[in-house]
Amino acid sequence: MSLFAKKLLAVSAAVLAIGALIALYVADWATSFPKEVAAAPAPANSGGASLTLETVAAVGGKYSPTHPSWVSYLVRTNNRWERTTDFTVPANSVVHVTIYQFDTPTGLRNPFLSQVQGTVGSATLDGKPFTTIPPEEASHTFAVPELGVFVPLAGVPEESKHPCEEAPCEPSTMDHRTITFTFRTGKKGRYRWQCFVPCGAGWYFGNGGPMQTLGYMDGFIDVV
Ligand SMILES: [Cu+2]
After folding, report:
1. Same structural domain for residues 99 and 139?
2. What angle do CA 41, 189, 142 make, to 5 degrees?
3. Total tally of structural domains belonging to the chain
4. Residues within 5 Å of ion ligand 1, judged at the Cβ atom
5. In the chain, how long is the greatest CA-to-CA distance?
6. Are residues 110 and 187 in the same domain?
7. How far apart are the CA of 73 and the centre of ligand 1, in A?
8. pLDDT digits 0-9 by tens, 45-65
């Protein structure tokens, strides 16, 4: 075989291999979405919909066999916790959110995001209205930038007595913070939401892994 033929073969093989990897990336990762969960109707007379979420320090092997140590959001549906971050909510409506936050603080790099913004009325932390938390006490945030909604979630103290090791975390027996807030939806569409705390421990600047993969620290709110 001539040198030219060898080179041609090597380049062709490399192009095919890279093409196959790109195809796999698109088919297996970039186009896979978490399961959609519809917000529950809000309690009588309050109108709108309600979402109950929890944030956990480690999602555990039951919810994520491939990434048991990742931080994650879970949603309450049909009386159990599910790991998904795609929620359906009604258009031109209010959504009442309750988040049970079980993780310790990581801290926000941008203190602007430690202010509550874009909610209807006051957000509450452990039953008390609040407008901001010290940036270093943030464990995660719930933010829908397109709707101007930013809510910081305070962390559980490191020395807490009954920490939750891995999901599902149980609010009745394990140490947590409770955050509630309400936001208004507008027209139909798909809105991205995400955590802004660099909580992906062990990843570059804390922003890889669960911060970059749908179904953990970010997802979509489908307004329908
Ligand atoms: Cu987070």
Report:
1. yes
2. 65
3. 2
4. 140, 195, 197, 199, 217
5. 81
6. yes
7. 8
8. 777 899 999 999 999 999 999
